[in-house]
């Protein structure tokens, strides 16, 4: 019997930790074949997605696939992300989470994985996640 990957269990655990802590879970996704996301938001072959309960509808984190619908610029879109395309899951507010080595797409060389102790270089606001007080 083949050994099961720990990746889906770790993703679900960090998602639950974020939700229980009042933090916003984000995933970084290496866009390749099989990834269904709004392509107009993909930058440098990667997209960062808010997978919080307030941002998604019908979120399912399975052992092979993450599926949900979400609004992008006011338009509901269906998203489907194979787990091998997920390169990290982290809390937007503090950058804490887990980052996984990038898996090679078929027929191409893989990029070097991001360091496991720092948030990804690409975030929705263009820099390191931070909390801002608005008066």
What can be said about this structure in brief?
The protein is mainly β. It has 1 helix and 7 strands, in the order αβββββββ.
Q: How much is the radius of gyration in Å?
A: 15 Å
DSSP strand count: 7
3D shape: globular
* Main beta-sheet annotation: 4 strands, antiparallel
Give me the side-by-side strand order of the main sheet: 2-1-6-7
Write the layout of secondary structure elements.
Layout: H1 7-21, E1 25-30, E2 46-50, E3 56-61, E4 65-72, E5 75-82, E6 86-91, E7 97-99
Antiparallel strand pairs: 1-2, 1-6, 3-4, 4-5, 6-7
Describe this structure in words.
The protein is mainly beta. It is built from one helix and seven strands. It has one helix at 7-21, and strands spanning 25-30, 46-50, 56-61, 65-72, 75-82, 86-91, 97-99. The strands form two sheets. Strands 2-1-6-7 form a four-stranded antiparallel beta sheet. Strands 3-4-5 form a three-stranded antiparallel beta sheet, covered by helices on one side. Strand 6 and strand 7 (97-99) form a beta hairpin. The chain starts with 6 loop residues before the first helix and ends in a 36-residue tail after the last strand. The relative contact order is 0.21.
């Amino acid at each position: 019997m083949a050994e099961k990957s720990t990746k889906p269990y770790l993703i679900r655990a960090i998602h639950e930790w974020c939700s229980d802590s009042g933090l916003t879970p984000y995933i970084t996704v290496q866009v390749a074949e099989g990834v269904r996301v709004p392509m107009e938001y993909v930058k440098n072959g990667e997209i960062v997605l808010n997978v919080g309960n307030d941002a998604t509808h019908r979120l399912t984190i399975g052992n092979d696939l993450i599926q949900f619908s979400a609004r992008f610029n006011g338009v509901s879109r269906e998203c489907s992300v194979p787990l091998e395309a997920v390169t990290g899951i982290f809390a937007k507010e503090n950058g804490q989470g887990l980052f996984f080595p990038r898996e090679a797409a078929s027929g191409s060389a893989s990029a070097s994985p991001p360091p496991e102790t720092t948030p990804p270089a690409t975030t929705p606001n263009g820099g390191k996640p931070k909390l801002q007080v608005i008066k």
